[in-house]
């Protein structure tokens, strides 16, 4: 594949809609999400295919992004392989300790809010299907079990075949938000290349070089390669490559390379895909005989009780201040009244959770005082001893500088 000249020489910019709503920090862990990822300067140099790749018509980066935005494909089914290497331990065994409602006698082990967070580490195979905005299914396949989330109209079902437990919600996420409860299905946990690509293309502010870098074959489909690279220093993101279906504009593969090099931090792509209408049975679900069924309202009530017990922990954080812009965006979160974070000697911190945090942390000092930087290959967080958190897809030095400047 022949790379194009940098988009910087063209000076053309495209702006996409900003932002999804922010969530409060999860107790004891820093959310692993790309904060403030932006697409910006759009190159006008067309793609050129080398001899081993599909020979497709020339297209500019501007035209390719417009093609993604204009895609009206709402029906598909297929298999997605997603590999995530953020440099953190597997979340599977820690979910019960780190996240309220993660299971146990009072929780719901089939709760999507908990189960799908396991996708932040390791390699997983997903079977997906969609038929418009009201019918979707995602199944995470394991060697001897399967976990599925089925959305059909106002019904959301989740089933864990390993534990034979079912999670059910009838109300929409908006209804739950009005009542101060969690939505039935998780937000901000992308499970397809399209969802990941949309996050990376949310905003354009001049901080990104965007080019078309040749063509590829993905899941038997011809595709163009859209490449985003930050122009700012200090980001932990090296580049994002999105393989876009040449016919319908659907992102087929998403690859995020960290600036530190090595294997991709996130690599998600279809291994097979069909754009025909899925069978109606794909979105039908009846709880198996003998399965334990937990209603969303029951799990929500348990979550409130856990939140009360968590006062003074990270779940009590509120009031987010955004520092910087583009790829170097840092979120500053302050604890009410400057409450300090739970210490390693605190009886309120589960041993597994403390082990997880200690494996990631580096002690740092600066004008701000002292604190600990928790590292992944992508998102880093500085937790100060006086109860502030600085988090972003930036380096340790960038976090310390932001804390120093914040006073």
Strand residue percentage: 25-35%
Give Rg in angstroms. Answer: 22 Å
CATH class call of the largest domain = Mainly Beta
Structural classification: alpha+beta
Write up what this structure looks like.
It is a single chain. The protein has 407 residues and is an alpha+beta fold. It folds into two domains: 7-299, Lipoprotein localisation LolA/LolB/LppX (outer membrane lipoprotein receptor (LolB), chain A); 317-406, 2-Layer Sandwich (TATA-Binding Protein), CATH 3.30.310. It is 16% helix and 33% strand. The chain is built from eight helices and 20 strands. It has helices spanning 61-70, 95-98, 112-115, 173-178, 193-200, 296-309, 351-360, 396-406, and strands at 12-13, 41-42, 75-84, 122-131, 135-141, 146-152, 155-160, 165-169, 208-218, 221-230, 237-245, 251-258, 266-274, 292-295, 318-323, 330-334, 361-366, 369-374, 380-384, 388-392. It has a 14-stranded mixed sheet. A hairpin with a 4-residue loop joins strand 7 (155-160) and strand 8 (165-169). The longest helix has 14 residues, at 296-309. The protein is globular, with a radius of gyration of 22 Å. The N and C termini lie far apart (48 Å). Mean pLDDT is 74; it is low at 1-51, 91-107, 176-188 and 301-317.
